[in-house]
Design a protein that fits this description.
By secondary structure, this protein is an alpha/beta fold. The protein contains 6 helices and 5 strands; from the N terminus they run αβααβαβαββα. The strands form 2 sheets. It has a 3-stranded parallel beta sheet with strand order 3-4-5, sandwiched between helices. It has a two-stranded parallel ribbon with strand order 1-2. Strand 3, helix 5 and strand 4 form a beta-alpha-beta unit.
Length: 137
């Protein structure tokens, strides 16, 4: 919520190979996301868009992270400057895709994965770091 209050748009980029493998339907994926948005809403958190790759790893598509495709699509659609954007994730694929799209990357977790610009154990600490960087700009 603090990031949103500071003017950041919150956008999700996710790989959902379960759809491509037939474990999860698109309708089920949408229902799960609607439930998540419903839980976030009362806290004043609004997700502007959810971009997802429904393909399996074997499909070798252009949109699956670590490809920057979905990140770049979001940047175009929101007319955002990647130099002012941050990718927060917990996987090396998140870091690589964000970096290839020109965004700063922040890894949340305790294991070093990829080559992020910063690593924090919690999302809250990652958000605080982003807010401090934005204040310096």
């Amino acid at each position: 919520k603090a990031l949103q209050s500071a003017g950041f748009r919150l956008v999700l980029v996710t790989n959902q190979q379960g759809i491509g493998l037939g474990y999860l339907s698109r309708q089920d994926f949408i229902a799960v996301n609607q439930a998540m948005l419903k839980q976030l809403g009362p806290h004043g958190v609004r997700i502007s868009r959810i971009y997802y790759c429904p393909h399996s790893m074997a499909d070798e598509c252009v949109c699956r992270k670590p490809s920057p495709y979905l990140f770049e699509r979001g940047l175009r659609e929101f007319q955002a400057d990647p130099g002012n954007c941050f990718v927060i994730g917990d996987r090396a694929e998140d870091m690589e895709g964000g970096r290839r799209a020109g965004c700063a990357t922040v890894l949340v977790g305790t294991e070093a994965k990829g080559s992020p610009d910063a690593v924090f154990p919690t999302f809250l600490e990652a958000a605080q770091w982003i807010l401090s960087r934005a204040a310096q700009a």
